[in-house]
């Protein structure tokens, strides 16, 4: 009996390793596109299905938000943000920072008061399980910001991660 018990424990451990290996592999398999998606080599093969309205034309050179924001006296400061934190961050000052806050408040007010949404304030840090369930891990692990320490926490890439996980493992 002792021999059978030891053999069973060994088999359980082998099964757990195989299940982990299978799960890790399945997490890297991409979603299969719908049959309605036309095949193509690159974006030039994309098909326009529908349009709405007429694209606006301008009689001046169109600039992106970064270029416009950097030109303002109280605007977007990418250089200082890079010095403080690194690339992909921005410091907003003065009226631009006020506009940013006002737009957030406006959006929250409209959607919670007029469209039935519920405002939530979720953590900016999540565990690996939360990122697995939303498709961020393992595929995008190198792009995520991971905290070192006793707990393995990641900074959220978007609010989608913690908001989606509000209902993880709940029956609805």
Q: How would you briefly describe this protein structure?
A:
With 172 residues, the protein is mainly α. The protein is built from six helices and four strands.
What features would you describe in this structure?
The protein is mainly alpha-helical. Among the domains are: 65-119, no CATH class; 121-172, no CATH class. It has 6 helices and 4 strands. It has helices at residues 2-26, 65-71, 78-84, 94-114, 128-133, 160-165, and strands at 76-77, 91-92, 125-127, 153-155. The longest helix has 25 residues, at 2-26.
Cα radius of gyration in angstroms: 24 Å
Query: Unreliable stretches, pLDDT < 50, 5 or more residues?
Result: none
Average pLDDT level: 93
Helices, by number, come to 6
Largest pleated sheet: 2 strands, antiparallel
Q: What percentage of amino acids are in beta strands?
A: 5-15%
The gross shape turns out to be extended
* Portion of residues within helices: 40-55%
Order of SSEs, N→C? Answer: HHEHEHEHEH
* Structural class by sheet pairing and helices: mainly alpha
Can you lay out the helices and strands and say which pair or pack?
Layout: H1 2-26, H2 65-71, E1 76-77, H3 78-84, E2 91-92, H4 94-114, E3 125-127, H5 128-133, E4 153-155, H6 160-165
Antiparallel strand pairs: 1-2, 3-4
What are its keywords?
172 residues, mainly alpha, two-stranded antiparallel ribbon, two-stranded antiparallel sheet, 6 helices, 42% helix, extended
